[in-house]
Amino acid sequence: MRLSKVVPLDENRVVTVYELRLGDVRKYIAKSKNLGDIDIKQLLTDEFEEVFDFFDELIQFKDTSETLDDLSFSEIPKIKDAFMEVNACFLDLIGQMIGLADLLGSKNSPVSESLIEPAQDSSAEDTAA
Predict the structure, then answer these.
(1) What's the pTM value of the predicted model, to 2 decimals?
(2) What pLDDT is recorded for position 121?
(3) How far apart are CA 113 and CA 116, in angstroms?
(4) How many of the other CB atoms lie within 10 Å of CB of 58?
């Protein structure tokens, strides 16, 4: 079952934040491939509509015709917290994938360094004993 969380913005306004579905991620990846290799500045300027449309499907206003455009910046942290909560499994998976990529891709990454250091310390103790 898809997780969701109701977020009260004020006394009269409520949004529901939904969990990502596999199809949502696949659709976004397909759109992203069309964007090619772009940096974050370009993504947040030239391609912002692509990202914005993606979140528009995950955040629904209740009993109002409001859209994401109507949100104030002070309301975004409430929605971000709800998004992180209902998408904890997805975000954890992404974190694991990034950690694995760091481990496999670079010996100098923080992840690989933290995995190597304990092994070096224990081997030094074994040698001293």
Answers:
(1) 0.65
(2) 43
(3) 5
(4) 20
pLDDT at 122: 43
**Tell me, what amino acid is at 74?**
S
Q: Roughly how many angstroms between the first and final C-alpha of the chain, as a whole number?
A: 55
What is d(CA 26, CA 30) in angstroms, rounded to the nearest whole number? 6
Average pLDDT by consecutive 10-residue portion of the chain (129 residues)? 95 93 81 64 64 78 87 93 93 82 58 42 46
Instruction: Output the six-digit token pair for 37.
Output: 């290799």
Tally the residues of the chain.
129
Report the amino acid identity of residue 112.
S
Beta strands in 10-118 (DSSP E): 14-18, 59-61
